[in-house]
Design brief:
This protein is mainly alpha-helical and about 800 residues long. Helices cover about 60% and strands about 0% of the residues. The chain is globular and about 75 Å long.
């Protein structure tokens, strides 16, 4: 089946490659304008003298206020497009309103949960794991939210502006496959260690303290790098577009999300992610329609093609076929793609926030959510950079390479197309992207500090209440620290968003394979994992600095380290030397680890009981261990197929085009157009559809029954307890042969179990003569999990024997072995 699907994909891609390619650009033909000889390779900043340049716009386009671009030394020229007050309004005003909105959603959601479940949603397990019940739509939404950095919106357009269409493609493809492949690890979490809170708990359970400390270093460093890129890009754009002090922006951006993240924990991140991506995709669709459908100076794919061909004669791209922007034959584009692929493995596989998202999802939602999230995220860098990045060239705007490297291409194009409104839109879009990932990083770092530092090395007996308090302290502390970190980086000459983005793989790439081996290779040893991670890091630093020195006459500095060959050598060394060392060392004395031991050990890390943290106690058949075994095979094949298409099939089929024709370019834009709309549907509509029952409940339209029941069994109704997949399925792990769903119909009196929200009758049907039980409050559910504090749930999900040594009680009523509405027990 996978082979057939691959064949169909390749056939469609081949059809897209059929239009005949041209091998050059001809002036005066097909709408191509010949640039004046004195304007070829003339840049605004390079020809600037005393604040005036000799640069002229090739097409005679003017600014949104009809002022000429000719003679400008840069697009922004030190003058913000928006008033400073509007910048403060975005950061403080809209940021504050969004924070209040998320806090209100958390509050109203918690109030809508029945009283019998209130204790479950106020535990440390729920605070840091979101109940482990997140559905696939919201899971995909969260992936897009946390993977959309400032760099996603800014750096992708920068590489489009510099390299042409190969830049957006390699940015999108090179950072999508990591999420697709991580879906395999997400399933392995649910199969082998569903009770974990952090990735480091897997490392600790397998390899002990030394490895735990080594990978703690790598995880924290990953959070440093991701946070730095978020704030560097966000603060630079806010400063350039609105004039808000860059240091103030650096501090306020991370602090703006501290309040709701500290209030609701991981669930707050999931709730806020929907709002974040809604703004991001709505802005994206506005820009796509404006550039390729108008009204604007462009307004069609043909006009964009003509202008890009004309600009390629003025600014031929070094290393590109015929210097054109519309080709996949791009040396710099391919180099960037390799760096992007290698570097982004580290920022997914070594970032605790992605592991935390997988931990929080329902088992059946993990692989669906990550696959959907990867597909939807692809549209942001691909569609947006193909739009704004190339529009910056097609309009021939006076954007300097320094402005481009600082991520200012999108705001420049937005200002030209929409005036101050465009500047506002792209700034608000960026603010949403930065704060989305910022909240995820804050809860990720606080989890590492609480579970892997405080609990592990200072207070193993910490209580759940203390965990929540310390997590909130950690969230606030990281919010402040990240602002200070960004200010420090801003004062290092030569360090900008592009530099940090391409350097990240050198620092954290060597930890990727050892962490993956912790879940998929039973023979990997702790010594091998440590040697691979540290050896790969050392090799990466040596390769990076050696190549930089060779490129700069033996001098190593920030500038020489930024050479693409140096970045490439360091990134490749980090990712591929590490598994080689790890394999050699591990095979000297293989561990032969028993995966059942991992499940047992990680279950002991639970601080408070969570019935969703055990593989064999899942309610729904689609979440069962057997279903996860099937899903693992399906996800592995799907992830491999999509990786093949994105990294090999698509580029190879685009290479014969060399310089894109108008028709082929039209197909390319159509794909970006459709993909953007599909991604918006996945992340905006799907989460609402999946949560429709709860939303209707919150709005008071239709009451939702929060009990899970097994359908198809005579005389069995919802009783508020933990329902099983089948007879004893939760205890035996055997698959159920029944449909499982949420019961949303009123409970009748035909059940042998006491119905929810009703007092136990004086005489229940099927048990004649059974007296009413004094002291039993009305509405007490029969078999409510953990009815008495300190007692573990019995076989029916209720309390165990009331006295030590007594057998478990059916439904928690105190009568051992009495079938209270549960036949065949």
């Amino acid at each position: 089946r996978a082979t057939t699907t691959m064949g169909r994909v390749l056939l469609v891609a081949l059809l897209l490659a059929l239009p005949v390619a041209i091998n050059g650009i001809e002036c005066g033909k097909d709408g191509v304008i010949c640039p004046p000889a004195d304007q070829i390779r003339v840049t605004p900043d390079g020809s600037c003298v005393s604040g005036v340049s000799t640069w002229k716009n090739l097409f005679g386009y003017t600014q949104y206020n009809d002022k000429s671009y000719d003679g400008l030394c840069s697009f922004f020229g030190g003058k913000p497009a928006l008033d400073e007050g509007l910048g403060w309004f975005i950061i403080v005003g809209l940021g504050g309103l969004f924070s209040l909105a998320v806090s209100f959603c958390i509050w109203i959601g918690e109030r809508s949960v029945p009283n019998r479940h209130q204790d479950d949603i106020h535990t440390s397990e729920h605070f840091n794991s979101a109940g482990r019940t997140i559905k696939s739509g919201l899971c995909a939404c969260d992936i897009v939210s946390k993977w959309t950095w400032a760099a996603t919106l800014l750096q992708s357009s920068n590489v489009a502006y510099a390299y042409g269409i190969s830049g957006p493609f390699w940015y999108a493809a090179g950072a999508t496959i990591q999420v697709l492949l991580f879906s395999i690890l997400a399933i392995e979490i649910k199969r082998k260690c569903p009770s974990i809170h952090t990735v480091l708990e897997v490392v600790l359970a397998r390899w002990g303290t030394p490895a735990h400390l080594v990978f703690l270093f790598f995880c924290i460093m990953t959070n440093f790098i991701v946070t730095a890129m978020l704030i560097l890009g966000g603060a630079a754009v806010v400063n350039a577009v609105t004039g808000v002090n860059i240091y103030a922006a650096s501090m306020l951006i991370p602090i703006s999300v501290v309040f709701y993240t500290a209030q609701g924990g991981l669930m707050a991140c999931f709730i806020s992610s929907w709002g974040h991506v809604s703004v991001i995709y709505i802005a994206l669709l506005i820009f796509i329609w404006k550039v390729y459908a108008g009204p604007s100076e462009l307004g069609s794919t043909d006009k964009v093609w003509e202008n890009l061909m004309s600009v390629a004669l003025k600014y031929p791209v070094p290393g590109n076929f015929e210097g054109t922007f519309l080709t996949m034959w791009s040396r710099s584009g391919i180099f960037f793609g390799i760096i992007n692929i290698v570097g982004n493995f580290g920022t997914v596989f070594v970032d605790q926030s992605y592991w935390q998202g997988a931990i929080a999802a329902r088992p059946s939602a993990t692989y669906k959510g990550y696959l959907l999230g990867g597909i939807a995220w692809f549209a942001i860098p691909f569609s947006m950079a193909t739009t704004l990045g190339l529009a910056g060239r097609a309009l021939d705007l006076p954007i300097t390479m320094d402005e481009s490297g600082s991520g200012l291409v999108p705001p420049a194009v937005a200002v030209h197309l929409l005036g101050p409104g465009g500047a506002f839109l792209v700034t608000f879009q960026l603010f949403m992207a930065v704060t989305a990932t910022g909240s995820a990083e804050q809860i990720a770092v606080s989890s590492l500090l609480v579970y892997d530092v405080y609990k592990r090395y200072f207070n193993p007996n910490v209580t759940g209440k203390s965990i929540i308090f310390l997590s909130r302290v950690g969230i606030a502390a990281w919010g402040v620290f990240s602002g200070v970190l960004s200010i420090v980086l801003l004062n290092i000459p030569g360090i900008n968003l592009g530099w940090v983005y391409q350097a990240m793989g050198n620092f954290i790439g060597s930890a990727v394979c050892p962490i993956v081996f912790a879940l998929v290779w039973k023979d990997c040893t702790g010594v091998g994992a440590i040697a691979g991670a540290l050896g790969g890091l050392a090799g990466s630093m040596i390769a990076w600095m050696s190549i930089a020195a060779e490129m700069n006459n033996g001098v190593v500095n920030v500038g020489s380290l930024a050479h693409e060959n140096a970045f490439l050598g360091g990134n490749i060394t980090a990712l591929f030397l590490s598994p080689l060392i790890c394999f050699i060392v591990s095979m000297m004395k293989p561990q032969n680890y028993d995966w059942a031991q991992l499940t047992k050990t990680t279950e002991s890390y639970l601080i408070e009981e969570d019935r969703h943290a055990h593989a064999n106690e899942q309610v729904l058949e689609e979440d069962s261990p057997e279903a996860m075994d099937v899903a693992l095979k399906w996800t592995t094949r799907t992830g491999a197929l999509m990786t093949f298409v994105l990294l090999i099939a698509w580029p190879l089929l685009a290479l014969p085009q060399k310089n894109f024709t108008k028709s082929y370019w039209g197909w390319w834009v159509a794909i970006a157009f459709i993909w953007g709309h599909l991604a918006a549907f996945i992340t905006i509509i799907l989460p609402i559809w999946e949560a429709r029952e709860f939303l209707l409940h919150v709005l008071g339209v239709k009451k939702m029954d929060f009990s899970a029941t097994v359908r198809g069994r005579d005389g069995y109704d919802a009783d508020g307890s933990v329902a099983y997949r089948a007879d004893g399925a939760a205890a035996t792990g055997k698959p159920a042969q029944r449909d499982i769903s949420i019961e949303d119909t009123p409970v009748t009196q035909t059940s042998q179990a006491a119905p929810m929200n009703q007092a136990y009758p004086q005489q229940q049907q099927g048990y004649p003569g059974m007296p009413g039980m004094p002291g039993m409050p009305p509405g007490m559910p029969m078999g409510y999990p953990g009815m008495y504090p300190g007692m573990m749930p019995g076989p029916m999900g209720g309390s165990p024997g009331m006295y030590p040594g007594s057998p478990p009680m059916m439904g928690g009523m105190g009568y051992p072995q009495m079938p209270m509405g549960y036949p065949q027990m």
